[in-house]
Amino acid sequence: MRLLIHVGCGVFFTLQLVAAAEAGPSPQVERGREIFLNSKKGTPCGRCHSLAGVGKAIGPNLGTLASTVGPRGLVMTFKMTVYAYVKDYALATETFSGIERKKEGTEIEIYDLSQPTPVLRKVDAKRIISAKQTRLWKHPPAGAGYTSQELADLIGFLKWAANGSVTEIKASEVEPAP
Ligand code: HEC
């Protein structure tokens, strides 16, 4: 970010601010951000969620959940199989899973989630035969095979992004309670 500062008598100087997001405040937050954005397991979270200025906001905002729910609860939501927003849209020619972005007049904008990178489609509402809670779609982290340490790192990043916490999340905190 570049700020133009007025120091009087028409004199300006520019101040270069290094984005705080460039370096994480702890190694765990760094690792978590890397998984969020670039994980080779499953589809990286950042393709569908936006947090701390990175990623794309297609799925729900994770901030509130990340600051209020504990590590095990968060892992359960990553692996959930019942969904609130994603629907299977049946048209005469095809059915695809998607999440509605907005409705304008008779046109609906839907992110098509049947592709690895969601694609925004504009569909005439009249073409939609049915839109039912999805049974075809699966939240990518559900089957991604993340290790407990990777999940702990992800949650470390989520919590830092949500409320600035840098408390280290241990792998044992994301494993099912004994
Ligand atoms: C292909 C897109 C996509 C990817 C990749 C993805 N998500 Fe999601 N996520 C969604 C959508 C869509 C929902 C909403 C599902 C619903 O309830 O209908 C969601 C829901 C969630 C929720 C629950 C939020 C709430 O308020 O109900 C959490 C937490 C979450 N995702 C975390 C993650 C994490 C962490 C990753 C990466 C490890 C990830 N997601 C990867 C699309 C994605």
| Number of domain units | 2
Question: What's the pLDDT, averaged over the residues?
Answer: 89
CATH homologous superfamily annotation of the largest domain? Cytochrome c-like domain
**Beta-strand residue fraction:** 15-25%
**Secondary structure: helix percent:** 10-25%
Describe this structure in words.
- It is a single chain.
- With 178 residues, the chain is α+β, with helices and mostly antiparallel strands.
- It folds into two domains: 26-81 and 141-173, Cytochrome c-like domain (Cytochrome Bc1 Complex, Chain D, domain 2, Orthogonal Bundle); 86-133.
- Helix content is 24%, strand content 25%.
- It contains four helices and nine strands; from the N terminus they run ββαββααβββββα.
- It has helices at 27-38, 63-68, 71-78, 148-163; strands at 2-6, 12-16, 50-51, 54-55, 87-90, 95-104, 107-112, 119-124, 130-133.
- It has a five-stranded antiparallel β-sheet with strand order 8-7-6-5-9, with no helix packed on it. A two-stranded antiparallel ribbon has the order 1-2.
- A hairpin with a 2-residue loop joins strand 3 (50-51) and strand 4.
- The protein is elongated.
- The relative contact order is 0.19.
- Mean pLDDT is 89; it is low at 14-21.
- It binds heme C.
- Residues 43, 45, 47-49, 59-60, 62, 65, 74, 77-78, 83-86, 99, 113, 118, 139-141, 154 line the site of heme C.
